[in-house]
Amino acid sequence: MTATPPRLEVQNLTRVYDGKTVVDDVSLTIGAGQVTCLLGPSGCGKSTTLRMIAGVDMQDRGRILVDGALVCDTVFRVPPERRSIGLMFQDFALFPHLSVAENIAFGLPRRDGARMARVDELLERVALAGFGAKYPHELSGGEQQRVALARALAPRPRILLMDEPFSGLDERLRDGIRDDTLALLKEEGTAVLLVTHEPHEAMRMADEIALMRAGRIVQQGAPYNLYNAPVDRAAAAFFSDVNILEGRVQGALTQTPFGEFLTPGLADGTEVEIVIRPQHLKIDFDRAGKGPLPTAAEGTPARAEVARARFMGRESLVEFRLCHDGRMIRATVPAVFLPRPGTPMWLMLRRDRCFVFPKVA
Ligand SMILES: Nc1ncnc2c1ncn2[C@@H]1O[C@H](COP(=O)(O)OP(=O)(O)OP(=O)(O)O)[C@@H](O)[C@H]1O
After folding, report:
1. Does residue 3 sit within a domain?
2. Which 8-state DSSP code applies to residue 53?
3. Where would I find the ABC transporter domain in this sequence (predicted)?
């Protein structure tokens, strides 16, 4: 018995522009009904990867397969319109002179008797029943997005490529639209590759995230794993604000203002960075210069003074200056707590939530 091949398989995709490698040996697979987010900062090569898969740009190296069949290598190339790959871009690119129904029907064969039935079905599914005769300029941004989604899905593509499909929308509407879009994509069973530079969006949408930096995929996996087991400091910092404690390993330990820290597996003298997210600090009150007792889970408390506290709605962001060496540490705490600058307090690290990485030059 042979295993079912992935819906989309990209092998060692590489693209060089003007002598610069902008996509560097990218490999990934996506199964039917799975959403993978290609996440990374601006200019890291996400859109170029998408364009090669769509067939509007040609790789210098690597192969693309759909359901196990070769679609493109550096010699052979199936044209874009015969790849069963749908596209959806940030600007939706609706045809202004066509009605909503005509936009959605655009990719369906004219002789297809079920053409209008499919249009009506999709209009219903994107909650736009009755909008078929309207024109794009008569719709809100969110409605246009839903038409673009319906148009992309109408021919039942095996794969849908989405490039920042929510970035033109009002921030307050985005989460609802993301959830509705995801529900429809799952119903249709399409394999989706979605490009975004927003970690929040990737975590909300993705079954898998491929984190990209300078043309390469540096980490790939479920959102939970990327957030909780980042491969390096930059991967940790991409998902949230972080504090960094620097130190040098001596006998598998590193000295910090929070006491000795276990840093096993690293040679003596290695410079390390201990990374901690602001929500993983614990804060305690100062009792006449005394703080809580050290524990195995939280180490030694460090005394600090509130430098600044900002109310953020659900939480407060408090910046502390450590008494030990004056360095600044940020902590987030429930918003009921908004201490005044100058207040002495004690900080502890949740050691199980810290990441230790050798320092990168
Ligand atoms: N046709 C081109 N010719 C030359 N350089 C290009 C071309 N297209 C893209 N690049 C360069 O390739 C790099 C990657 O661009 P790409 O658009 O893939 O990045 P991105 O991660 O999608 O960024 P963004 O999120 O800003 O769209 C950039 O440095 C860009 O300037």
Report:
1. no
2. H
3. 8-239
Q: Tell the residue nearest (CA) to atom 4 of ligand 1.
A: 17
Question: Which tens digits make up the pLDDT trace of 178-227?
Answer: 888 898 888 888 999 999 999 999 999 999 999 999 999 999 999 999 99
Per the CB < 8 A criterion, the answer to whether 24 and 45 are in contact is yes
- Under 8 Å between Cβ of 136 and 94: yes
The ipTM of this complex is: 0.92
- Of 207, 238, 269, the residue at which a domain comes to its end is 238
Question: Are 182 and 313 in a shared domain?
Answer: no
Residue 311 and residue 251 share a domain: yes
- Which is nearest to 333 in space by CA: 296, 294, 304? 304
Determine whether the shortest distance from the Cβ of 50 to ligand 1 is under 6 A.
no
For atom 31 of ligand 1, the residue with the nearest CA is 43
Residue 2 lies in a domain: no
How far is residue 161's CA from residue 85's CA, in Å, rounded to a whole number?
A: 7
Q: Does the pTM exceed 0.80?
A: yes
Ligand 1 mutation pick, 13, 18, 47, 51, max ligand atoms within 8 A of CB:
47
- Kindly state the average pLDDT of the residues 21-38: 96
Question: Closest residue (by CA) to atom 30 of ligand 1?
Answer: 43
Structural domain that includes position 347: 241-358
Is residue 48 lining ligand 1, measured as CB closer than 6 Å? Answer: yes
Regarding beta strands 35-39 and 208-213, do their DSSP bridges make them parallel or antiparallel, or are they unpaired? parallel
Instruction: Give the pLDDT band (50/70/90) at residue 361.
Output: confident
Is residue 127 located within the same domain as residue 162?
yes
Summarised one tens digit per residue, pLDDT across range 72-100 is: 998 999 998 888 999 988 877 899 999 99
The residues facing 323 across adjacent strands are: none
Cα 31 to ligand 1 centroid, rounded to whole Å: 27
**Domain containing 325 — which CATH number?**
2.40.50.140
The pLDDT tens digits of the residues spanning 113-128 come to 788 899 999 999 888 9
24 alpha carbon – ligand 1 mean position (Å)? 13
**Residue pLDDT, tens place only, 62-72:** 999 999 999 99
In a domain, 121, yes or no: yes
Q: What is the pLDDT of residue 1?
A: 57
What integer pLDDT is reported at residue 222 of this predicted model?
97
Quickly count: other Cβ atoms within 10 Å of residue 351's Cβ: 18
CB of 15 closer than 6 A to ligand 1?
A: no
Among the three residues 238, 255, 278, which one is the final residue of a domain in this structure?
Answer: 238
Q: Which of 16, 46, 164, 196 to mutate to test the pocket of ligand 1 (most atoms within 8 A of CB)?
A: 46
Residues 272 and 222 in one domain: no
Six token digits for residue 175: 């989460």
